[in-house]
Design a protein that fits this description.
With about 220 residues, the protein is mainly α. The chain is built from ten helices and two strands, in the order αααβαααααβαα. The structure holds iron/sulfur cluster (SF4). Iron/sulfur cluster binds next to loops.
């Protein structure tokens, strides 16, 4: 199964510190848990239902690791200027929130969604053009309740300055089970993974296409007229 880069990094670290037999046993346990969460998520409907379950599972991990102090605080927003990657399920949840009234700058979303993966623009760090479309003027998430899985699992234990400076070296808080859960989610059939702007734009475009193809725009226009 595909593993998140953080899970791959974790396995590589353990390979360095464990003897071969111990590492094999550790690797088998990771695979067992991956399969467990994969099967659990595979029973759920794609989109809201499966995405919300992932959020719930990640929240449990957050609570279980609450004793590890992080340096993250509301109003920082440094990681909301990175190429945040989300699943199709998360894109569906975000698109629903937009349909329900969370405002966003559609011109900026379209511009950001046109970027290639690892576009060099991201290397500029916390510049206005890299701001997530849901980041408020106070540098807090305007869509916190619906924030994607990656935003839920990411936090750091290093000084804030490491996140703020270009080329800094932030140290993420390790939540191994959260990495396994996210990997299990990314392996679900049809649950693609990509930049937030690209995935959200795609989801919104697909929804618009369905509306156009079913003629609902015409019905709405007649109602308004
Ligand atoms: S969705 Fe919210 S938490 Fe996630 S990157 Fe955007 S502003 Fe930040």
């Amino acid at each position: 199964m595909i593993k998140t880069p953080q899970l791959r990094g974790l396995l590589a670290n353990y390979q360095n510190i464990l003897v071969a037999e111990e590492f094999e046993s550790f690797e088998r346990e990771v695979e067992r848990l991956l399969l467990h969460y994969y099967d659990l998520l595979a029973k759920l409907a794609p989109g809201q239902e499966r995405g919300r379950k992932v959020h719930e599972l990640l929240h449990e991990q957050e609570l279980a690791s609450a004793h590890i102090k992080t340096t993250c605080q509301k109003g920082c927003g440094a990681c909301c200027h990175l190429e945040v990657e989300i699943t199709s399920d998360d894109a569906a949840i975000l698109a629903d929130s937009v349909a329900q009234g969370i405002a966003l700058d559609s011109v900026r979303l379209r511009e950001m969604s046109a970027r290639e993966r690892l576009d060099k623009a991201w290397a500029q760090g916390a510049v206005p053009s890299n701001r997530c479309v849901f980041l408020g003027a106070d540098n807090a998430c305007r869509n916190y309740e619906n924030r994607p899985a990656v935003c839920r699992k990411h936090s750091v234990v290093s000084p804030v300055a490491e996140c703020e400076k270009v080329g800094g070296n932030p140290v993420p808080k390790l939540m191994p089970l959260a990495e396994i859960i996210l990997s299990a989610a990314a392996n679900q059939v049809g649950n693609n993974f990509g930049a937030l702007s690209k995935m959200l734009q795609l989801e919104m475009d697909q929804r618009l296409e369905v509306v156009l193809n079913t003629g609902k725009i015409g019905i709405l226009t007649e109602e308004i007229l």
